[in-house]
Amino acid sequence: MTSRLPKLIAFDLDYTLWDLWIDTHIDPPIRRPGDAVNELRDRYNHRIAFYRDVGEILHRLREGGVTIAAASRTHAPDLARQALGLLLVPPPPGHKGEAPTPAIQFFDQLEIYPGSKIKHFKELHKKTGLPYSEMLFFDDEHRNKEVESLGVTFCLVPSGVNDRSFEQGLAEWRRRHPVEVTEDAPGGDAAGLE
Ligand SMILES: [Mg+2]
After folding, report:
1. Dist. CA 7 → ligand 1 center (Å)
2. What are the residue ranges spanned by the domains of the chain?
3. Catalytic sites, residue numbers
4. Residue among 124, 153, 148, 121 at smallest CA distance from 136
5. What is the pTM of this model?
């Protein structure tokens, strides 16, 4: 059985997808060294890269038809957008020969501006028409858990997104939104839910 995914998954940027604050640690201009994959450099050669598992997770979500969003309260929204446009995500495993993809192409929605993330999610709801119950959000800062007041599932990732924290978030979302069983299930599954 394939595992259910929420219709929208949103990610914070700083310390959730990369290990820096784009507005305080990075000095423009930023550039990609040649064809480097998952690597940018700023004026002082400070490196910008996604955490190790992020690329594969983005591929998986796109494959699964999930709407992908970025929700960041950075004070440098233009720089953040520029970084997403320049940063290359390697092709998924088993597609080694294929060209890498600019990170920004994975994101269907970008809500990047300072302020409470309640606003970011209200905008996501308005723009996508998706219910909050279909939204899962990964963020490294506890204060942003306030989006749960809307009905979004919040997953705190103090060490950023990796395979393990991502699966934990999915598991929590599935726990909160169990499948409504409408068919006769022969044996196993239905009994196991009790
Ligand atoms: Mg953050």
Report:
1. 22
2. 19-137+177-182
3. 12, 14
4. 153
5. 0.91
Measured in angstroms, how far is the CA atom of residue 177 from the centroid of ligand 1?
Answer: 26
**CA 20 – CA 109 distance, rounded (Å):** 21
φ and ψ at residue 107, rounded to 5 degrees: -95, 120
Question: Buried b vs exposed e over 60-83: b needs ≥16 C-beta within 10 Å?
Answer: ebbeeebbbbbbbbbebbebbbbb
User: Which CATH number applies to 19-137+177-182?
Assistant: 3.40.50.1000
| pLDDT tens sequence for the chain (194 residues) | 458 999 999 999 999 999 999 999 999 999 999 999 999 999 999 999 999 999 999 999 999 999 999 999 999 999 999 999 999 999 998 898 899 999 999 999 999 999 999 999 999 999 999 999 999 999 999 999 999 999 999 999 999 999 999 999 999 999 999 987 666 655 545 444 43
> Cα of 95 to ligand 1 centre, how many Å?
31
